[in-house]
What does this fold into?
Amino acid sequence: MNLRAEFDQMLAEDGYPVILQRTSRKIHCPWVDPQTGKPCWDERAQEGNSRCPICLGSGWVTRVERHMTRRDNASQVVSLPGSTMVAEPGRLWTPANNFYFRHDVHPQVGDLIYEVGWKGKVPVTLLAVHLIQHSEPNRGDHGRIEFYEAATRLVTLDK
It folds into this structure.
């Protein structure tokens, strides 16, 4: 059985396209706000400008890609996406999802997944934004990566 071929067939039949925003953690965004003259990345606050049209407020150089995926609800009392959050003792519900990608996508922690409405191949409406909290390569025979599973939580952005 070729799991990659089976996964590709599953995406072709039941998957849908999303936008994956990859974020470099090495190069800060070069945009300068024309109104204030301040750069996007604020070294003192260690954050990007939320109005930046280039990086969308991340403060880092980004790349945007279109990928096919599937999504499953991952909300639990204790969930992998919520494992990095500090919370009071007791029950905690995290709006979380698992996204499944092809073996060659390589989603990383900190990347954003945009669920959008499409008109042809052009995104027209933003439905939800998910921050990748954990990315796991699922391996098959001899350690070959068959697909990726990205654990995410919903986030609110100014875009």
Remarks:
- The first strand starts at residue 16 and ends at 28.
- The chain has one helix and six strands.
